Structure formats: structure tokens, C-alpha cells
Amino acid sequence: MKFLVDAQLPRRMAHWIAGAGHDAKHTLDMPLGNRTPDAEVIACAAQEQRIVVTKDDDFVQSFLLSGQPSSLLLVATGNIANAELENLVRRHFSRIEAAFAVHRFVELNRGTLVIHE
Fold first, then answer.
1. Nearest 5°: CA angle at 40, between 35 and 43?
2. Contact 5, 69 (CB under 8 A)
3. Cis bond leading into 69, ω under 30°?
4. CB 25 within 8 A of CB 98
5. pLDDT at position 30 over 90
6. From CA 42, how far away is CA 71, in angstroms rounded?
């Protein structure tokens, strides 16, 4: 799987995902870095067939209204320490992988993984 981690999440999250054996990049790896407009993030994700990983509700609204990005992992944890976020991602990553084998919109919150139909 390929992932594109959005600006509100730490660059290290892309490294955690890559450590799980996936292709992952962060918006900081794009030409405009964290100033990359949402439309360009969506276009990159579509071109490279990446799952957008974000905390930004704008991507949720875009997904619901237009189906873009085509796959979305919403991190709905509120403010969270990076170490706690890393533990959460690692703890749920096998379930995240399984969910994206079938579904397009998955939400990770502090307590569980929610699969949106």
C-alpha cells in the first residue's frame, strides 16, 4: 500500500508506516511542503494511488461530496503526543491494512478503528 501523510501529522508517521513495509511519504516531501494545497495532495494521491492520512476534516468533506481522495485514513485523536500516536498507529496497523483491502474510508481514534461504509 502507498500512503501520503498530510501536514498536521508528524513526518515521523510516514517513517512508521514505511517501517511496516509500505511506501509512505509526507507532504514535506512534496515541492510546496506543508503549504501544498489540498487539491494538489488529492491529485498526487490519485496519480500515485496513495491513501491520504490526515486529521483535516476538509478531506473528509471532499471524500463524502466527491469521492476524492479515493482512500482516506482519518486520524481523529485530537491533540496527542507523538509517542502516543505512534503506539496507537502501531497497535492498529494490521487492522488498518486489512480495512483498506476492502474499504476506502477508515478512521483511527484513541479507542478504536472505525470503518466507514
1. 155
2. no
3. yes
4. no
5. yes
6. 10
Residue carrying C-alpha cell 501523510: 5
Domain positions in the chain are 2-116
Judge contact between 25 and 14, C-beta under 8 A: yes
Grid cell, residue 23, equals: 511506501
Contact 70, 106 (CB under 8 A): no
For 54, the enclosing helix (H) or strand (E) is strand 51-54
pLDDT digits (tens, 9 = 90+) for 62-79: 999 999 999 999 999 999
On whether the pTM is more than 0.90, the answer is yes
Residue 85 backbone dihedrals phi, psi, to 5 degrees: -65, -45
| Grid cell listed for 107 | 478512521
Confidence band for 109, pLDDT divided at 50, 70 and 90: very high
> For cell 501520503, what's the residue?
4
Of residues 114, 115, 111, 105, the one with CA closest to residue 91: 111
Count CB neighbours of 24 within 10 A: 22
